[in-house]
Specification:
By secondary structure, this protein is of the alpha/beta class. It contains ten helices and twelve strands. The mean pLDDT is 96.
């Protein structure tokens, strides 16, 4: 007895996107945690995964990866279009540490936020709101970099005014030889940025990958509840039901993508094991956004607690 066998007639019967085959999700999970390292046919030759023993190590490893990309482009005399996620925030403390240790100025970097909370019209939270991603980036990354920081004129937030300009800005940078690096996480509902899985039904595969952004994207209940737990101290009423987000034209066509999955909550409780296995093993599907990420060059870091056998354990 499980969810698929009891779904009919339940409150969840129409909850999941119709294109989701939950049996295929289960088939992605192996009993042996080490099997997660088995390369899959869809993986790009230059895609790899790396495990961190715990969240503390994860923050250092991801921060070092980010700082190295900034450093490499600086040393190569190349501009860097860097699309940044908000969270896990611990990585920014370490990226700042390494950049200061190496004395790497970020004048060559153009920073673009992946997404931002909004209403249905794309109007966003005030920049100094404690829940605003702009506020989080200023406090965790741009501010602490001090004299090495990215110029304010080269920081772009996913607002109603600035997000529609991303395609032209990033396109121009790439024509000048800039490297496009996307830093991403994997959502509880397998979204990347706030590009939700149900958007896949709106487009054929070829059209989906051309989508650059969306204002006032309607979020899934799992996404809202995930963020209530991770960013709003369980207070679901504080979480907006919409967000502005970049689209697949950017996060599936990066020159390099840096992913992170650290969704362990302590006492053996976690929220991200299933979505991690699905990302790595499910066939590419426009209905499951994260399945595209291993098909491009990059690295995905995860904490060891996410790769344990995904079996019942009453807490």
């Amino acid at each position: 007895m499980n969810l698929p066998t009891t779904l009919k007639g339940s409150s969840l019967e129409s909850f999941f996107p119709p294109a989701w085959d939950l049996a295929k999700w289960d088939a992605c999970i192996a009993d042996d945690p080490e099997a997660i390292f088995d390369r899959q046919p869809k993986w790009h030759n230059d895609f790899s995964i790396r495990v961190a023993n715990d969240v503390a190590d994860f923050d250092v490893m991801l921060g070092h990866e980010l700082a190295m990309e900034i450093r490499r482009c600086r040393e190569a005399g190349r501009k860097l279009a860097l699309i940044l996620r908000v969270g896990p925030m611990g990585m920014y403390r370490w990226a700042v540490y390494f950049l200061h240790e190496w004395n790497v100025p970020c004048a060559h970097v153009h920073g673009f936020n992946l997404d931002e909370w909004s209403d249905s019209e794309g109007n966003t939270l005030a920049p100094d709101d404690p829940g605003a991603f702009q506020n989080a980036m200023e406090n965790a990354f741009y501010g602490p970099l001090r004299e090495l920081t990215i110029s304010p004129g080269q920081r772009f937030i996913a607002t109603k005014r600035l997000l529609p300009d991303y395609p032209d800005r990033i396109g121009s940078l790439r024509k000048e030889g800039a490297k496009l690096v996307v830093v991403y996480g994997i959502g509880r509902a397998c979204h990347i940025a706030f590009w939700e899985t149900h958007f896949g039904a709106e487009f054929a595969n070829d059209q989906r990958r051309k989508q650059t952004h969306r204002l006032g994207a309607k979020l899934r209940p799992l996404t809202i509840e995930q963020n209530a737990i991770t960013s709003f101290k369980s207070r679901t009423t504080l979480v907006p039901a919409f967000a502005n987000t970049i689209g697949p034209a950017f996060f599936t066509r990066a020159d390099y993508a840096i992913g992170g999955a650290d969704g362990e909550l302590g006492r053996g409780i976690e929220r991200q094991g299933l979505s991690l296995w699905v990302t790595l093993r499910h066939p590419v599907s426009r209905h499951i956004t994260c399945t595209w990420m291993p098909t491009q060059p990059g690295v995905l870091y995860f904490t060891r607690a996410l790769a344990v056998p995904l079996v019942a354990e009453v807490n």
